[in-house]
Amino acid sequence: MEDAAFDLAREGEADGLSARLDEGLPPDAQNARGDSLLMVAAYAGRQATARLLLDRGADPGLANAKGQLPVVGAAYQGDAAMVALLLDHGAALDGAGADGRTALLTAALFDRAAVVELLLARGADPRKTDAKGMTPLQAARAMGARVTPALLEQALGQA
User: Fold this and answer.
1) Could you read off the pLDDT of 65-116 as tens digits, one per residue?
2) C-alpha–C-alpha distance, residues 37 and 70, integer Å
3) Is the overall model pTM greater than 0.90, yes or no?
């Protein structure tokens, strides 16, 4: 049953998922919500499972039905290691979901300082706006983030 594969991804059962992939499950399989196995693993912080999927050909740029990307989900969770893994496997640094929110904007908005630092160090664009025209700095300030506005100001030369 395909739902079981998503449970394996969510629970970090890399060995069980590997067996399902060996049986022919596509690494980019999606559930009814359009979430890929990689999206589920990334959102749950299951690095070994995400690495398995990426090594088996999962697309780090595959959005779900809502237009959300795995790297943005990992940024929302504040999981810098997962963000780095996804970027290292080809996720777009400034890739955005349907709402135009990049991983940087999302991390800034939710005050995920380690992720903001990583993304800025990798060259993420702090001036890129979302669908409403908000920059990461504007979004972070509007949300009342405590740490990320200063990081973005420094990146923008405003510190």
Assistant:
1) 999 999 999 999 999 999 999 999 999 999 998 899 999 999 999 999 999 9
2) 10
3) yes
Tokens of 74: 């990992």
Q: How far is CA 120 from the centre of its chain?
A: 15
User: What tens digit of pLDDT does each residue of 7-30 get?
Assistant: 999 999 999 999 999 999 999 999
2-11 and 14-22 are packed helices; what angle lies between their axes, rounded to 10 degrees?
150
Phi first, then psi: what are they for 30, rounded to 5°?
Answer: -125, 145
CB 120 within 8 A of CB 155: yes
Closest CA to 136 of 85, 86, 75, 60: 75
**Residue 32 tokens, joined:** 């009814």
Given the structure tokens 């790297």, which residue do they identify?
Answer: 71
3-class DSSP state of 5: helix
